[in-house]
């Protein structure tokens, strides 16, 4: 497993002179299936932590990118300072920025959750120390509680995304510039286990989204929604945000969807990366991009297209689980450990599907109402019980397991009391 970013620093065309040209749809689908679903025993675990950044003395003050760069020093990503050495944090985690200057720690994947905890905790403490020295701190929710969305990074990719999403409403700008997620990365697993594992990570979405939802307040206003962050994601382009359908062949289903989705941005030498309207990647392969001056696409072009999907679960050779709101820095491990426990054994994944069946696919309901929805709360409670009972499989110390179990159980306890 390797951590893959959205390549915001890429300049020029996504293609290069040596990249293989895709001659037909079958070649494109075969490429997607091969790079997005790599099989083998589940071995590695990773996490990507996003946070909004605020001034300690005035959280609602717009963030000055110069202040952030001054705090991050040699760790400043090149999307903000092109001449930065962009050093990883001391324990090895690369640092990146979202369009609104949300910071993101992308931990190197580890073979045990205990090792991942050590790496992330060290790098997170270092980041917090750097920010505190300049009067800044990390937000503790999945959306900016204090400020309206404002793009701070001027990359061609983000500018093109902003233009594309603007006619669709406020969701795109909010997603890009105001939200922060916690993304858990797990191995795809053995080929024969993939359909159940793929179905399980999706089935867990609504109950876990509701359990860890904390993004109700945005820009000083009560949105009335448990996860305004996830609603913002859903309010952008449906073709690239809707959940995948379970099936016997996830790789084939995903490959077909990728080729039938319109291009979002198209890297080019002129600095304006707007893609032709409604041109799907399959259209491009079939030669229907010639009117826009496009030659045949390559595997590099398709690899870039893959970075423009924001689904609840995104396959990248591993499964990137994207539906969780960012958590307070001190509690990032809780949802990661719970998910790791729930996916540790095929038999547990089977049980997950059974428990989650009543609320399968209820993403919008989970984002709007969270645990206030009785059916979702009931399933969430059972899922948390199952996950906490399996925490012993994670290899974490007993005291850490107790802390996580108590913390996660406390999130669903209120809904249990309400149902009593």
TrEMBL record:
<dbReference type="Pfam" id="PF04107">
    <property type="entry name" value="GCS2"/>
</dbReference>
<dbReference type="GO" id="GO:0004357">
    <property type="term" value="F:glutamate-cysteine ligase activity"/>
</dbReference>
<dbReference type="InterPro" id="IPR014746">
    <property type="entry name" value="Gln_synth/guanido_kin_cat_dom"/>
</dbReference>
<dbReference type="GO" id="GO:0052699">
    <property type="term" value="P:ergothioneine biosynthetic process"/>
</dbReference>
<comment type="function">
    <text>Catalyzes the synthesis of gamma-glutamylcysteine (gamma-GC). This compound is used as substrate for the biosynthesis of the low-molecular thiol compound ergothioneine.</text>
</comment>
<dbReference type="GO" id="GO:0005524">
    <property type="term" value="F:ATP binding"/>
</dbReference>
<dbReference type="InterPro" id="IPR017809">
    <property type="entry name" value="EgtA_Actinobacteria"/>
</dbReference>
<protein>
    <recommendedName>
        <fullName>Glutamate--cysteine ligase EgtA</fullName>
        <ecNumber>6.3.2.2</ecNumber>
    </recommendedName>
</protein>
<comment type="similarity">
    <text>Belongs to the glutamate--cysteine ligase type 2 family. EgtA subfamily.</text>
</comment>
<comment type="pathway">
    <text>Amino-acid biosynthesis; ergothioneine biosynthesis.</text>
</comment>
<keyword id="KW-0436">Ligase</keyword>
<dbReference type="InterPro" id="IPR006336">
    <property type="entry name" value="GCS2"/>
</dbReference>
<keyword id="KW-0067">ATP-binding</keyword>
<dbReference type="GO" id="GO:0006750">
    <property type="term" value="P:glutathione biosynthetic process"/>
</dbReference>
<keyword id="KW-0547">Nucleotide-binding</keyword>
<dbReference type="InterPro" id="IPR035434">
    <property type="entry name" value="GCL_bact_plant"/>
</dbReference>
<feature type="region of interest" description="Disordered">
    <location>
        <begin position="62"/>
        <end position="89"/>
    </location>
</feature>
């Amino acid at each position: 497993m390797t951590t893959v970013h959205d390549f915001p620093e890429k300049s020029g065309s996504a293609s290069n002179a040596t990249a293989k040209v895709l001659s037909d749809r079958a070649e494109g689908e075969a490429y997607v299936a091969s790079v997005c679903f790599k099989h083998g025993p589940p071995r590695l675990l990773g996490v990507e932590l996003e946070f909004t950044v605020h001034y300690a003395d005035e959280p609602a003050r717009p963030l000055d990118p110069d202040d952030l760069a001054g705090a991050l020093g040699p760790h400043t990503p090149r999307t903000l300072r092109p001449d930065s050495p962009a050093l990883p944090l001391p324990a090895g985690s690369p640092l990146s920025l979202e369009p609104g200057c949300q910071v993101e720690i992308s931990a190197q994947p580890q073979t045990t959750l205990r090792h991942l905890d050590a790496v992330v905790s060290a790098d997170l403490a270092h980041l917090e120390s750097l920010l505190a020295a300049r009067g800044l701190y990390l937000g503790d929710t999945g959306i900016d509680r204090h400020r309206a969305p404002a793009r701070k990074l001027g990359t061609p990719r983000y500018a093109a995304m902003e233009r594309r999403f603007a006619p669709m409403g406020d969701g795109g700008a909010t997603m890009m510039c105001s939200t922060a997620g916690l993304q858990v990365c797990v191995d795809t697993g053995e080929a024969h286990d993939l359909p159940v594992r793929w179905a399980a990570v999706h089935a867990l979405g609504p109950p876990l989204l509701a359990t860890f939802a904390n993004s109700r307040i945005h820009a000083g206003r009560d949105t009335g929604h448990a996860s305004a962050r996830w609603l913002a994601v859903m309010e952008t382009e449906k073709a690239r945000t809707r959940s995948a359908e379970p099936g016997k062949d996830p790789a084939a289903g995903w490959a077909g969807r990728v080729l039938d989705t319109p291009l979002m941005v198209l890297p080019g030498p002129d600095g304006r990366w707007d893609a032709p309207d409604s041109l799907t990647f399959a259209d491009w392969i079939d030669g229907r991009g010639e009117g826009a001056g496009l030659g045949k696409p390559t595997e590099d072009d398709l690899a870039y297209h893959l970075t423009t999907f924001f689904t609840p679960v995104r396959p990248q050779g591993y499964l990137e689980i994207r539906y969780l709101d960012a958590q307070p820095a001190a509690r990032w491990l809780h949802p990661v450990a719970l998910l790791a426990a729930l996916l540790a054994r095929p038999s547990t994944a089977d049980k997950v599907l059974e428990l989650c069946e009543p609320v399968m696919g209820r993403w919008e309901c989970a984002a709007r109402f969270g645990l206030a929805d009785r059916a979702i709360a009931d399933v969430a409670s059972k899922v948390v019980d199952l996950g906490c009972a399996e925490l012993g499989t994670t290899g974490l110390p007993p005291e850490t397991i107790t802390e996580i179990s108590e913390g996660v159980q406390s999130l669903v306890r209120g809904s249990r009391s309400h149902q009593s």
